[in-house]
Amino acid sequence: MRRSILFFGLAMALLFSSAASAKDVTGVWSTVDGESHVKIEPCGEKICGKIIWLKEPLTEKKIAKTDIKNENVSLRGQPINGLQILKGFVPEDKNEWDDGTIYNPKDGKTYSSTLTLTKPDELEVDGCVMIFCKTQVWTRVE
Predict the structure, then answer these.
(1) What topology does CATH give the domain 2-140?
(2) Has this prediction a pTM greater than 0.85?
(3) What is the chain's percent helix, strand, coil content, to nearest 5?
(4) Which residues are within 8 A (CB) of 103 and not within 5 positions of it... i.e. 6 or more apart?
(5) How far is CA 103 from the centre of its chain?
(6) Cα distance between residue 63 and residue 130, in whole Å
(7) What is the model's pLDDT at position 125?
């Protein structure tokens, strides 16, 4: 009986610690130079994120910006605002999420990615092609 209680307590601690990790990265983040805000939230058992605000949401012709660089021609008409750009992240440890992808609407390409919470309000976002990576630091808005 004592072992059962100990096992149950350990299982609950592990469950809550992984849930707490996922919660730390959730929220609204400002990208580099405040160009956009990305809302990061759970999607099933993984973490995803979508653009919810743009500093410059309109083109020169005063039309909402769309995903004109998308490699899939049929998706080029989708609005940038509301676009899911982070997909498939799983907790690697307390402050890191791995195995995800990040989509860059500026070039229409998707990159492998990791997220690392370096401070409660600072998130390092790595986008990689093979061994070449670029890191951005995002700042928590909410």
Answers:
(1) Lipocalin (2.40.128)
(2) no
(3) 20, 50, 30
(4) 83, 84, 85, 86, 87, 109, 110, 111
(5) 10
(6) 36
(7) 98
